[in-house]
Design a protein that fits this description.
Structural class: mainly alpha
Oligomer: single chain
Shape: elongated
Order of helices and strands: HHHH
Helix content: over 70%
Number of strands: 0
Low-confidence stretches: none
Number of helices: 4
Number of domains: 1
Radius of gyration: 26 Å
Strand content: under 5%
Distance between the termini: 67 Å
Length: 89
């Protein structure tokens, strides 16, 4: 009888954790659906037009990245190095 209780004790925690994870997932999905129904936007916000780089600046960064490298181009144009890498590649 003790062996049966021990086996039951060892088997239950993973099952409980799985059920809890499923319930959390269901609640999260339900909350997202409720927010979407209210007109809320789910996800990362889009960047405003005034903060976007112009096509001309993108081309200038790309050209300069090809000659001096993306890090120097980023410093020169005052943008983040990852932005220079994005347009220079």
């Amino acid at each position: 009888m003790n062996l049966a209780r021990l086996c039951q004790f060892l088997v239950q925690p993973p099952l409980v954790a799985k059920v809890q994870a499923q319930k959390i997932s269901e609640r999260t999905k339900a909350g997202m659906a409720r927010a979407s129904a209210k007109g809320k936007r789910i996800g990362r916000p889009t960047i405003s037009e005034e903060l976007q780089l112009s096509e001309e600046l993108q081309l200038r960064i790309a050209e300069r990245s090809a000659t001096v490298g993306p890090y120097a181009a980023a410093k020169e144009f005052g943008v983040d190095r990852k932005t220079a890498i994005k347009y220079g590649a």
